[in-house]
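Lab meeting, item 3. Inverse folding demo.
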């Protein structure tokens, strides 16, 4: 049932005592080893000894992506390079990459966190896991590899791309578990259909998807198309990679956080004030076991909320709501805040279209406007202009009713939107061009 029963089902008192001990050690560690943190703490007049209870976490300064960029590549690394056994990196959209160095022990912890994630999704030693996350600097590929190895499952490191070959391997090797981004899972499902594959006849039964926002509607779509149960992995390069949080059999839209490794807080993204459980805000993480790069109060920009309570799976690990977007992805149209994922969930409820879409943001005079290009189902497209208009208008009315603003819907011919092999590009912001 659990990979690491002790920590996954620990009582709150025990967990908090453990967290406090780790937090105190970590603050002392970075204070001693990383000038960046020492200067920041000194400026605030905080000494590591001032961390006496978990609530003292709030006394510590935040760190942000730019701190990593300013200290590129290894300025925040707390150990000599000789003790670093691996470095991952994420490219991000602009500027220098974010680096993630690991000691041997950091890697082992990460493998365990990933094993918890995969185990909760039902992966066992007799499974064959096809790892279609990009294997390289990206943490997805090797993170999944390590977790699968811990469990003793058979790993097939296909990495992403060459979709036809992926499907042949899936068929011939008897893959039972697929790991990739949700958008790539959709690409695989579509290609398989074109190849005449009936996924019901394959051994594939579970998917573990993540690395990008995806809605519950998208999960259902993937589950149907691939005839599997779709589970989730969440994480980020700065904290370890995938394995930070994962869903369990409850599939209630929340993910358990490996809180013996990572402390989570939710803050108001504008004021920085810590918000109570159940309130949406920006997720902030502190790594309390890592030694190469333990981030203090790292602002993820991911928007979610925390919830502690009894989970039907028996895990006591705190939960965070599934992440539907980052603060940087939020669109403000006509004074209304919208995440691309809200558009996805409304679209996927609609008939006559494929789950392939792109959102285009434009400036019209002083106002921003949104257009969504979405692929029509073949039969709709072939039925001609009248039918296409009818579907477009139906979706526009539906969107206006729910979101309250006008979004232009344009049905495009099937197969014309670029398919994802990794993280999907769902938004084209013409205002930035
Ligand atoms: O995407 C790590 C990962 C690999 C997670 C494989 C899951 C599976 P980065 O490239 O550094 O790391 O991107 C991290 O991706 O801050 C979120 O905004 C987003 N993200 C990751 N997982 C999810 C998810 C990897 N399950 C950034 N749901 C994070 C929504 C996700 N967003």
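The presenter then showed the designed sequence:
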């Amino acid at each position: 049932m659990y990979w690491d029963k002790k920590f996954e089902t620990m009582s709150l008192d025990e967990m908090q005592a453990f967290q406090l001990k780790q937090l105190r050690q970590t603050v002392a560690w970075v204070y001693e080893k990383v000038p960046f943190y020492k200067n920041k703490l000194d400026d605030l007049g905080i000494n590591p000894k001032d961390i006496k209870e978990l609530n003292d976490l709030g006394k510590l300064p935040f760190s942000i992506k730019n701190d990593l960029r300013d200290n590129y590549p290894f300025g925040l690394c707390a150990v000599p390079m000789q003790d670093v056994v691996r470095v991952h990196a994420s490219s991000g959209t602009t500027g220098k990459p974010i680096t993630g160095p690991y000691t041997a022990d950091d890697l082992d912890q990460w493998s365990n966190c990933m094993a918890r994630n995969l185990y909760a999704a039902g992966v066992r030693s007799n499974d064959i896991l096809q790892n279609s996350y990009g294997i390289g600097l990206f943490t997805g590929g090797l993170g999944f590899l390590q977790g699968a190895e811990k469990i003793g499952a058979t790993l097939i490191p296909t990495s992403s791309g060459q979709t036809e070959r992926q499907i042949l391997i899936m068929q011939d090797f008897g893959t039972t578990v697929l790991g990739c981004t949700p958008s790539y899972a959709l690409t695989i499902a579509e290609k398989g259909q074109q190849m005449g594959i009936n996924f019901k006849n394959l051994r594939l039964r579970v998917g573990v998807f993540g690395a990008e926002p995806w809605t519950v509607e998208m999960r259902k779509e993937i589950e149907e198309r691939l005839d599997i149960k779709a589970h989730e992995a969440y994480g980020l390069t700065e904290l370890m990679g995938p394995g930070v949080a994962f869903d369990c059999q409850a599939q209630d839209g929340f993910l358990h956080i490996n809180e013996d490794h990572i402390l989570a807080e939710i803050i108001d993204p504008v004021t920085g004030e810590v918000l109570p459980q159940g309130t949406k805000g920006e997720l902030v993480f502190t790594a309390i076991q890592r030694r190469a790069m333990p981030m203090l109060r790292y602002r993820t920009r991911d928007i979610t909320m925390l919830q502690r309570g009894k989970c039907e799976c028996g895990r006591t690990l705190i939960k965070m709501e599934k992440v539907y977007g980052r603060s940087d992805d939020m669109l403000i149209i006509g004074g209304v805040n919208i995440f691309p994922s809200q558009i996805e969930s409304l679209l996927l409820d609609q008939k006559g279209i494929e789950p392939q879409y792109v959102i285009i943001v434009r400036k019209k005079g002083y106002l921003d406007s949104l257009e969504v290009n979405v692929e029509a189902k073949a039969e709709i497209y072939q039925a001609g202009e009248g039918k296409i208009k009818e579907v477009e208008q139906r979706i526009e009315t539906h969107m206006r009713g729910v979101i309250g603003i006008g979004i232009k819907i344009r049905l495009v011919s099937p197969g014309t939107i670029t398919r994802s092999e990794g993280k999907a590009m769902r938004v084209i912001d013409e205002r930035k061009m």
